[in-house]
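Ticket #4471: complex job returned nothing on first submit. Input attached below:
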Amino acid sequence: MTDISENVDTVEITVNGKAIAAKKGEMVIAATDRAGEHIPRFCYHPRMAPVGMCRQCLVEIDTGRGPMLQPSCMVPVAPGMVVDTESETTKRAQEGILELLLANHPLDCPVCDKGGECPLQDQAFSHGPGESRYVEEKRHYEKPIDISPLVKLDRERCILCDRCTRFADEVAGDALIHFVERGNATQVMTYPDEPFSSHFSGNTVQICPVGALTATPYRFKARPWDLEQVDSTCTSCSVGCRISVHSSRDRVLRFQGVDDDDVNWGWLCDRGRFNFESVHADVRVGDPLIRTAPDRLEPTSWSGAMAITADLISAALASAGAESVAVLGGARGTNEDAWAWASLADAIGVERRDAQLDDGLPAGILGMPRATIRDAASAATVVLVAPDLKEEMPILHLRLRHAAVEGNTRIIEFSPTGSGLTKHAWRSIRTPVGATSATVAATLADPEVAAQLASGPVVIVAGRMNLAESADQVMASVQALTAAVPTATVLPALRRGNVVGALMAGLRPKTDDADARSILAAAAQGEIEVLVLVGADPLADLPDADLAHRGLAGAKRVISLDGHLSASSTEFADVVLPAAVMAEKSGTTTNIEGRVSTVTQKVTVHGTARPDWMVAVELASALGHDLGVSSVDDITARLAGAGAVAGSIWQGSVPPGQPVSVGTSAPNGYDMRLVLSRVLYDGAVSTRSSASIAALIGPGGVSMHPLDMEQLGVVAADEVRLSTDRGSIVLGVCPDERLDRGTVWIPIGQNSEDPRLLVGGGAVTDIRIERV
Amino acid sequence: MARFNDANLTTAHEIIARYPRPKSALIPLLHLAQEQNGYVTDEAMRQIAELVGVTPAEVLGTGSFYEMFRFEPTGRYLINICGTMSCALMGARELLHAAERSLGIHAGGTTPDGLFTLHQAECQAACTEAPCLQVNYRYRFKMTPEGVEQLIDDLRAGKLDDEIPPHGTLARVRQHIPSDRAVGAVDPDDVVGPPAWIPVTVEGAGS
Ligand code: SF4
Ligand code: SF4
Ligand code: FES
Ligand code: FES
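Support reply: We reran it on our side without changes. The output follows.
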């Protein structure tokens, strides 16, 4: 992967008679690109190391020894260099290469997804000879073969440019595809029975310069010339990758990555790329629903539903005060949505609100000195006190991987399980559950670590590494780190789409006991009259599943503003208001850095769905408050006044949390400690309602150290019973040597019994394991 | 057995230790695997991937580039009959037919008893001795159809066991480098002086 933003000295070269200022060290093709002189190419990609594989970029270059044909993607600029991209010799060479590349190409453009946006097609027109002298039979291969559930490979179309294979190795670090055989038989291939199941496989489809790689979710859905597109931002996680939303006939058909130098460098993860399918999923809510019987939700009108909602809230305010109303959620919406709901809560005096579902960190993390992704990727040291970024924030993982592999960044990782970055870490330290902060303190005392931390800028990436352990351990660790390195900055690894924007816009607990846990605990006690869920599904997301259940059951009334019919809505909502989802609404979103970027509506909303902000504004007016805004642009302007300007970092003013002190939890009578965390494909609604990636949700299971398995007398795939004082489940077991003995890891949201049933919200979760 | 046997696993670790980076041992380990099983099995490639820290796809990609690695069951004797120009003019086709007849297989096939694999090969750089062939890369020059039949009979009868070891064998005596003569695994970046095996220059000699 290549960082193209480095600022370097310039070198003067001449291109087609014009003097051009090139950056020292860059390749001729990069310089001519910036100068607007186009050289045809297939293998060159500005974000990957050049290989000179296709030879299409041959131009005449004169470095003082007379003009010579050279591949412009492999020749660095030099002072006084003279380049001719239009000479007769250049033209003949480029025509010759195209004729060769087409010698074996099937030219099945009419049935090829790439037709219409194909570099081979386009450059055959612009730089090809027009006719071929080859009459021989072309090479034949079985038409597309699945190299993964998401990607198909048509080897006949492949021009062997090495883009996909380089991407897999160099960028993703998953070299699961490779050239095999040689000469005329060379082909891209996986190892037998080992599919290209990279979290980043979709990028190869986007960068393949021909239709050799196609994405199963998009195949034969549209022709490029039928597609309309707008730029937007992925909100599947909070990295905030820039995307282009493509639609045809009012349906979203694909997302493509857009190169943003600060964030995603053009890449997307497969979850972000392919969950567009959820926009048109069957489980979308199209009309307001009200509960008419315990197991029955019936459609009603917006006016009816809003009147009921307003009545419920005003009755609650009148009878039991603002304490009895709570708002949970907001992290799936835009900044505007969050602002409107926070303003509504302010207007009616509701303090109980939280955009997180007890699965992140206290909002105070946003009050610490903040780092950008670029800061992290150029720091001398990155300290990870975070979940596996490859699973939760995949593109941040790519950026940090690049920093560690190709830059000078050293990673110090604290993790109970290890992660995708472990093999690139300078130090990877297993933190025993319940002793994270003690382990961090002990590591800081290591003189080598201290010297490393003193050697240059330090960025701490902080997130909830274990959902079965209290967030205090992470907060205390971060505080210990910032105390040891006062200049360190923090990049919060909070996962859900716009969680940072929602917290900053005001959907954060006003007091310590107003967070999601406290709200649901209060609800379970019968203290909450009206619980409003703004795109939140505690039943599916709260680590303590039992509390979620008791809270929702205990709340007198539950109002759910929901894009997809969630478990919480289906089971507990009295009123369900249909919400617009991403690609159906415009506004801004905020990523982990605090970077504000735009999201853009591309398709008409499903049914009568409305954006969250609109519901808040109307509800406010029904309750007798004027929020003073009547369009999303009004809110965007208000937010801009508060520093949330698209394209820049929103500093905001979240107070840093109180110092946290934690002890080390002594084990109880149970013998194992639980780590719960997320994997890329989990039960999240956008994943579950996108058929292509929903199929990739794993079977689930519990991982433990092979020696612990031996002691228990079980082998891989045996079933074991896990129990805590909360509950008991049965899971298949698999060995994992990365774990410490005594620690077990279970991914949540998989197709297994729900491990959240084991969690009670204590400092740690001790469990007992028996064979069944 | 498809994965390395215990002795070869020890050898594999020895080979890996010779290089500053484990990945450099990839091709020597492919040879070792081919020596053990007569060809490179899928399981062996997986094991090599684990041993040197790459993906199995990278092992296959690297290995399949080289003609002399075989990825399918291969006979104890691999007979490559040259079919390129000089040999073709001097009767290579007859050699191939003779071999096909006496083995009962077509070029590309392996006999059911697993003794012979027959191939038509490209120029073997012995054009002056055309037509020629190789058995496990041991030459037979200026061959005749009768000579091919005789060769096959002799191989079958085990008469050539001394000269021609089974396919995949690199050497019958494995070289062991005593540690005092070994350069050791030095990372190229760490090399300062000349390599240990270059004789020390006599001081004061020449200028
Ligand atoms: S599949 Fe596409 S990207 Fe990969 S080598 Fe072939 S042409 Fe290039
Ligand atoms: S890393 Fe996050 S923001 Fe980027 S594409 Fe994936 S889900 Fe979307
Ligand atoms: S673009 Fe330069 S060789 Fe392919
Ligand atoms: S043609 Fe047969 S060895 Fe050269």
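The two ends of chain A are 48 Å apart (CA to CA). Closing as resolved unless it happens again.
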